[in-house]
């Protein structure tokens, strides 16, 4: 008889992975919780937090302009700008753009989108006086304005009279998330913009996030909308498509930069080698000339000394022989005996005697 025993195996404990927070500054998600009908409360709260810097009247109501349908093609387009458009109760137009990657020319880019919104404010035949002011708000994640402030704003002022504004029709804001993250201390208790930027920061811890959600009803509404979006498979897919598109754009830019650096290094080395050869030849020639002059002078002096000594010695010998020959001849000694005495030939003796 075979006995079979069944053992109960304990079910493996699955580690619960911490759910990663969706990026509030993904521009598709930003539009979903700030730029759709029904998002007026949170958008109004954010705008008032931004515009208190320039002393504008507090906005009472806002109308959101849903100006396009977000298709898969638009979401997946790396160059597509998903901006938010709205109009305040005073008729002021607002354009909000989230730009996390530095595509360059942010100043002209912002002016372009401001002007596009500005000219939309008038129809053919209308008076220019009817053109409403346009406020452009740019939330960026890179260094752009060379000041320490997180939030900067711009108007049209006279060059030499900074208190004279040409018009209030133009107002452009830049809010740097990069500088905000670098702040030593965030004043979320007293500064409503700091609360919003803390909410936008994907790395904000859950404890702080819960605190600001309780403090600010606008942020609470935005958080509720993000939670709603996160439960939609279609919306989550669109969010992920947008994240991938922006990531692909960044990767493409970085790859192009790396290739450019490599090509630049190669060209730099080649140009450096050519310049090095030319400069080396020039310096070599100059140094060679200098050394040649020095060595030539040294050798010339040595040869001159040697020749001078030889000539001097020869002249000394000639003068000695001349004196001996003339002295011997004066004493009546014959040419043959003088030749035998000095070792000079008889002919040489005769030549010396001819000399005075």
Question: Could you characterize what this model shows?
Answer:
It is built from eleven helices and six strands. The chain is an alpha/beta fold. It folds into two domains: about 25-230, no CATH class; about 300-355, Arc Repressor Mutant, subunit A, CATH 1.10.10. The chain has a six-stranded mixed beta sheet with strand order 1-2-3-4-6-5, sandwiched between helices. A hairpin with a 7-residue loop joins β5 and β6.
Assign an overall shape: rod-shaped
Report the structural category.
alpha/beta
Radius of gyration: 48 Å
Characterize the biggest β-sheet: 6 strands, mixed
**Proportion of helical residues:** 40-55%
SSE order: HHEHEEHEEEHHHHHHH
* Percent of sequence in beta strands: 5-15%
DSSP helical segment count: 11
Strand order of the largest sheet: 1-2-3-4-6-5
Number of strands: 6
Question: Which spans have pLDDT < 50 for at least 5 consecutive residues?
Answer: 1-17, 249-257
Distance between the termini: 157 Å
Q: Overall mean pLDDT score?
A: 83
Give the total of domains. Answer: 2
Keywords:
6 strands, 11 helices, 356 residues, alpha/beta, Arc Repressor Mutant, subunit A, 54% helix, 2 domains, 12% strand, six-stranded mixed sheet
